[in-house]
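Comment thread on ticket #2218

A.B. wrote:
> Attaching the input chain for the structure job we discussed in standup.
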Amino acid sequence: MRMTLAIVTIAFVAACSTTPSTPDEAPVSPAQQSSQPQAVEAVDKPASDVDPAVQSVEDATHRVSPDERTTIAWLAEGANAYLGKISLAPETEVPLHTHESEEYLYILEGGGVMTIDGKEYDLGPGMAVAVPAGVEHGFVNGSEPTVAVQFFADSEGAQRFLQWSKVDTVEPQEEAADAEDAEVAD
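C.D. wrote:
> Ran it. Output below, let me know if you need it in another format.
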């Protein structure tokens, strides 16, 4: 699973990388690039408050939802992005909601039904999801635990997780659902 997470992260970073060009430039093949002199321009970049970091999911800060059915491993956060590993207990529902950041998911294990802008999608391992900013979405987990890589295109989307309790475990508590069922039966 660590390899999959690393591959997803590398693939996402590679997909988001762009090469600056001007509209007047004609496309240049790689062969032409190697034979042409390369001019290097100075680019003014804003200073980043983010230090480079590498950490394992085991060493990440873990938080659990108030109902103890969902956990998040806080893998990385910067000024413009958030990356986490989210784990949901079977039959967990993430109610319809919106936030002002784009959200991306890559399903590692499990699956369920994702609703995006009123349309339902069946999700399973190996599937990727893109939710535009401001679009209503939610998720109903299936009968197995679901584990996914979660990415917000700014870190604001993940701020709600800061209200969750810190925990030592990375898996959601299935017993919480069993306890709720027992209370309902009483």
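A.B. wrote:
> Thanks. Noting for the ticket: The chain has a mean pLDDT of 74.
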